[in-house]
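Support request, please re-run this one:
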Amino acid sequence: MKILSNKYLLFVFRLAVGFVLIIAAIPKIADPSSFAKSIEAYQLIPTILINLTALLIPWAELLIGIFLIVGVMLRGSAILSASLFAAFSIIIAVSLLRGLTIDCGCFGPNSSPLSWMRFWEDIGLMLFTILIYHTSKNKLKYDQKNLSS
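Re-run finished. Output below.
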């Protein structure tokens, strides 16, 4: 569909996904121990990897968000973003099916409870980034002409 390749709509998608990632990253970077506790509550990652995960994921979210907004390595940023949202979706679905009633940890401490709505939000954000990937002409480097494409 032509509407999905509209450069202004794609720029809005980039801004939306980028800002979500940045807003999610900042409180986790500021308080990694709380984020580590959220990760631990999912009971999916070996204890030895929890702290490392709590340190790496927020910085990845921050950098990917910035890259999407600014237009740096759009295709690579979109792949990484889609991968994060796919992983988050799977983790949320598995946890909900296991009957866990925990805080999602999505936006740092005091996030909303884990829910199917969070699952669908992550699926939607993943689809936006897949669309960004497929319509981006910017393959490997920053290109001022493609800032809004």
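Residues 137 and 146 are 7 Å apart (CA to CA). The radius of gyration is 16 Å.
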